[in-house]
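Hi all, long-time lurker, first post. I run a small reading group and we've been trying to get comfortable going from sequence to structure in the token notation. Rather than ask abstract questions, I figured I'd post a concrete chain and ask someone more experienced to write out its structure so we can walk through it together at our next meeting. Sequence below, copied exactly:
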Amino acid sequence: MKKNKNQKIKTADLKKYFISESSLISSDLNTAQSILIENGYDIEELENEALEFISNIDLTQSSKIEIKFTWKELFKKLSKNGLPSQLIKNKIIPNYPSSNTGSTEDLELTIDCLSQIFGFSRESLINDEVLSISTAPMRQAFFKKPINTNIHQINAYSHYAQFIAKTVSVGCKDIIIKEYPKDIKEFKAIITNKEGDFDIESILKAVWDLGICVVPLNDSGVFHGASWNIEERHIIVLKQKTDSHAKWIFDLLHELYHVFVHLEDSNSSVIEEQEISPLQANDSIEEREANAFANGIIFGNKAEELAQKCVDNANGRIQGLKQSVLRVAEEENIRPDFLANYIAYRLNIEGDNWWGTANSLQITKPLPYKIVKDQLIDKINYNHLNKLERHMLSKAINTI
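-- Answer (accepted) --
Happy to help. Here is the structure in token form:
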């Protein structure tokens, strides 16, 4: 459709033509306008012929237009919206260049990724427009509010994690969603009856068998886990900083409770801003319920009783706690690493640091991140994903 002859083309429109039709950015729009005039076009009455003209200009050969793009400028703009440069470099940009100037192809791919993940318009990423990220991924989340929370970073990373969760949901659409267990006893029976063990592998298999997807991320900071209901498919994102199997298992069980109880509505979410701790007294009721569920699965509702037994057997001496934990764990058929962590959190509240000893009782091999990643790779069908989705997921879980 032709423009009205009385309607003048705006500079922004001309810039849009160069972006969308040529996949190139001109740093000098006046020069671009001069080229149009030299070829017989009236800027004030420019019509759709501009599209054909611009697409036929070999800008890479034109001495009048300089093609230049600096990553530094883009990173500075994105950082104002809480997007750290390391996340952009390592997990989003298809091919981060060794120099500070990227190729046109890299620029286009990066713009496509940022636009689809965060909802930025292509033009706003390049011109002087102020970027803005919606708070949609966080609106239905339960938060634990730490001091000095960077809400922009949490919001931005939530968009990224939600995009990965949506991608996994698409890739796992063939997996049947089964009816969830009604209580702790039923769920624990599902785990132990199928595998005979209570470890991260058996719990993950039980969770996947219910149709719930589990995704590991290893980016530093921002948040420590999340769960989504995406079009009735539940996705759990685990983001634990240590290699402790016990901590990964506790986080998984904690998020699982949110899935069972708090995420019935489609497109709802739970974001964990702080480390998930089994004994945080100032948590919200939802967080305390999730902790009680995880502790119930692990300890059979005897966590405090067992912790006190360990203290009593050690005659109240911290120096004797390690051997006491090992004895009680064997007597009660409880893994020592679970019991050690619970006691370490309990002592931490009282002002005592027992984490050095607790860490010596942890199971760390094979790496829990790899266990979670391998099960995800085994379940997902990459044929359901488009090129961008495959790229983003592969980068997210470090398979490329």
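A couple of things your group might point at:
The beta strands are 213-216, 225-230, 233-238, 269-271.
Residues 151-171 form the longest helix (21 residues).
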